[in-house]
Amino acid sequence: MTVKHFLDLHEHPTDVIKHILAVAHTLKRDRSVHKTAMAGKTLAMIFEKPSLRTRVSFDVGMNQLGGHSIMLTSGEIQLKSDTSVPDAARALSRYCDLIMFRTFAHSYLTTLAEHATIPVINGLTNDTHPCQVLADIMAFEEHRGPLDGKIIAWSGDGKDNVCTSWIHAAMHYPFVLKIAAPGAHQPDANILTAARKAGAQIEVTDDPIAAVRGADCVLTDTWVSMGQEADMVARRETFSPYQVNSALMKQAKADAVFMHCLPAYRGQEVTRDVIDGPQSIVWDEAENRLHAQKAVMLWCMGVI
Ligand code: CP
Ligand code: NVA
User: What is the C-alpha end-to-end distance of the chain, expressed in Å?
Assistant: First the structure.
């Protein structure tokens, strides 16, 4: 039987993504649904980067499904290079039922999945963060209804992992994704071409006002992702015109929502009045990691 990995949004048919999200909404209404589905099952969580939300939401989610999780960091398990990744995959497959992996190079994730005989879930790589975007879509749907026909604006780093997973999401839903990023930090041309070929409606500009004008949702993320700390000063300078502040939010629809995957750096990519203000739905977004990932784990295990 094929192992059901969950590595990226664009790798699955639209009906699978919509099914996972429908189950996630159900799980949010009643956390006890499927409460014994994972009885006797173990999730191994491997973190090569820090985490609060991903770590806690997977752990609590597994617990709510009646299962158990083990938290591993790369240093503790001697995961030192890509050569040790296949062996970790083989060994963990003999003990556990699921693996969640947060790593740097996306190739480490795909290598782990290639050698694992149990499902592997992407808990963030340098390239993508699909579980985050499932939670984002849920939060948007709760506050503003279906994504169809909506404008989703991104201001900041167009190569950011969350932004790339939104590009992948645009292949599944008929919304317009407007990305504002400085020239060198705009999304990779190959990613855009593939997404557009699959039907995604994406516009890229270097003008944050043009991207946000009339938007139903404004998104951003840190300008300095994990692993980019050495370039912090230069990146803050480059991205400063892309800050989401109240002047930029005024360009969006009056009822536009603001989202950010967190952790946020107030005064950098977003101002306090926006992220802590009435248009911000970041706490629903954060909560939804729990429900979305429970649905992903159930899908990987063939329960839903
Ligand atoms: N949004 C997110 O993935 O948060 P953590 O880095 O805290 O897991
Ligand atoms: N782009 C950020 C997301 C954190 C959840 C990072 O990779 O650090």
Answer: 16
**102 CB near ligand 1 (under 6 Å):** no
Cβ of 268 less than 6 Å from ligand 2? no
Fold for the domain defined by 132-285: Rossmann fold (3.40.50)
Cis omega (within 30 of 0) for bond into 119: no
pLDDT, position 76 = 85
Domain 9-129+289-300 and domain 132-285 have a common topology: yes
Any atom of ligand 1 within 6 Å of the Cβ of 65: no
The 10s digit of each residue's pLDDT in 108-139 is 999 999 999 999 999 999 999 999 999 999 99
- 255 Cα–ligand 2 center, Å: 27
Alpha-carbon gap, residue 215 to 160, rounded angstroms: 20
Question: How many angstroms separate the Cα of 56 from the Cα of each of 74, 118, 154?
Answer: 18, 21, 26
pLDDT value of position 156: 98
d(CA 16, CA 23): 11
Closest ligand 1 atom to the C-alpha of 102?
8
Distance CA 208, CA 137 (A): 22
Residue nearest to atom 7 of ligand 1 (CA): 52
List the catalytic residues: 102, 129, 132, 221, 261, 289
Residues in CB range of 280: below 8 A, 6 or more apart: 257, 258, 259, 260, 274
How many Å lie between the centroid of ligand 2 and the Cα of residue 88?
24
